């Protein structure tokens, strides 16, 4: 003899499982209208502590610019893989030498007009009780900029 409770609850379980699977698999609309919002025009491509010894800003608008830049082989490869020239430009900011580990650069703010882009970069240092590497480090950040305007200004930490 069959248990009738199992037969009645099976369709409910299946419909619940299908609804859950649909939520997990199907794309969710980003706005009420169902249209996907535009991706940000600026994105961080790379950060780390293996940049240049001196503070510098490089604006790379093409593969030729990238080939002429004197970056490490790894950084050049990362930029080449992550930035779509000429639709994007790469902003490379080197903070210079720091006396220990624990420093990092972040994209703080971006303002854009049709003719100019201003990027603000902030630096976060180690906390007072943070254990850090006792070695020289060289923080850097690489930002990809979609549809770069003619003028690009970068403001960052000063030393």
Short description:
Helices cover 24% and strands 31% of the residues.
Lateral arrangement of strands in the main beta sheet? 1-6-3-2
Give the overall form.
Answer: globular
* Overall SS class: alpha+beta
Low-confidence stretches: 20-38
Largest sheet: 4 strands, antiparallel
Number of helices: 3
Helix content class? 10-25%
Number of domains: 1
Rg from alpha-carbon coordinates: 24 Å
- Element-by-element helix/strand order: HEEHHEEEEE
Quote the beta fraction.
Answer: 25-35%
* Number of DSSP E strands: 7
Mean pLDDT, all residues? 82
For the termini, the CA-CA separation is 83 Å
Domain PrcB C-terminal: 91-146
Protein name: PrcB C-terminal domain-containing protein
Keywords: Signal
Pfam family, one: PrcB_C
Can you offer a commentary on this structure?
- The chain contains three helices and seven strands, in the order αββααβββββ.
- 24% of the residues lie in helices and 31% in strands.
- The chain has one domain.
């Amino acid at each position: 003899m069959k248990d009738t409770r199992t037969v009645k609850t099976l369709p409910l379980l299946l419909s619940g499982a299908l609804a859950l699977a649909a939520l997990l698999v199907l794309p969710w609309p980003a706005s009420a209208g169902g249209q996907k919002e535009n991706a940000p025009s600026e994105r961080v491509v790379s950060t780390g502590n293996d940049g240049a010894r001196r503070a510098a800003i490089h604006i790379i608008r093409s593969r030729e610019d990238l080939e002429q830049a004197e970056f490490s082989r790894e950084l050049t490869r990362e930029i080449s893989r992550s930035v779509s020239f000429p639709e994007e430009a790469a902003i490379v900011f080197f903070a210079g030498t720091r006396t220990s580990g624990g420093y990092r650069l972040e994209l703080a703010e971006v303002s854009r007009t049709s003719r100019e882009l201003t990027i603000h970069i902030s630096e976060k240092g180690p906390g007072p009780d943070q254990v850090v590497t006792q070695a020289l480090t060289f923080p850097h950040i690489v930002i990809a900029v979609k549809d770069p305007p003619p003028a690009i200004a970068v403001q960052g930490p000063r030393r």
